[in-house]
Structures are given as structure tokens and as C-alpha cells.
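Hello support,

Our group uses your service weekly, and this is the first time we've seen a run hang past the timeout. The protein is DUF4331 family protein. I'm not sure whether the cause is the sequence or the server load. Input pasted verbatim:
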Amino acid sequence: MDNTDVYAFSSPENTDNVVLIANWGPFQEPIQGPNFYPWAEDAEYLINIDNNGDAVADLIYRWRFTTEDLRGTDTFLYNNGPVTSLDDENLLYRQYFTLDVSTDGGRRTGPRSPKARPRRRTRAWPAWVRPRSTWTTCVRPPRPRSTAGA
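Update from on-call engineer: The timeout came from a worker crash unrelated to the input. Re-ran successfully.
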């Protein structure tokens, strides 16, 4: 799967860490809803990192997704009421991901690789639609508080 953007920068909290942000679904806006493009189950989403400038990936992050679709035939919407948590019964379309990390250029990836971190299934954040659907701190990360005047 081709991504559209990758950003890398030093973490503001710990400059020894690097923060990676990637985008695979560009220009997706809340007004384009009510449903948005899901993560594809038949694709791999990769970030390849070359640490020494030889044009060969030394570190590979690979995400794979699965879907739990609870909508049945009654609705095409992702939710049937306000969503207040990732486990909310109103959230009818749920996606999960596993993240594999290869530290040997992709020769070995996943749980069988002694250099790979173990995988675990993690809930993917649903698309933020609007306050009446998914406006909670459980679904949309909270905005940082201003320290001005403190």
C-alpha cells in the first residue's frame, strides 16, 4: 500500500526518541462522511527506515488490519448513536491492527523473528465524524492544555 506522507521528528518529550507520522488516506474530511475509507484487510501498511544511507531498509514497521462489522443489514453507518468509548455498543464498525517490527531489513518479521517485537491485536481509532457521533476523549485524543499564564 502506498502512503501519501511520512513525517519524522525528534520527540519534544524525549529527544532520544523519533516520532513517525504517516498518512495513507489523504484529504479525508468529516464532511465526506458518514462513512470513510476503512483500513484494507488485504494490504500491508509499511514504513521503511534506512539508518545508514545505503538505500536498504534497516527497520520496517508493518501494520495489518482486521475488521469486526456488527452493522448487519439494518444500517450502512459506522455507529447507531454517540460513541463514548472504543468498546461502545453504538460503534458498529470496528477495526483492529497488529504491528510487526523487523530490525533486520525485513528478512524476519513477526513473532517467529528473534529480533522482532511480539505482536498484539490493538483497536484502531475510528474516523472522527462530528460531536454528535464521536466527540469524546475516548475516541478523539484530548487537545493539549495551554500553559499560558501558569
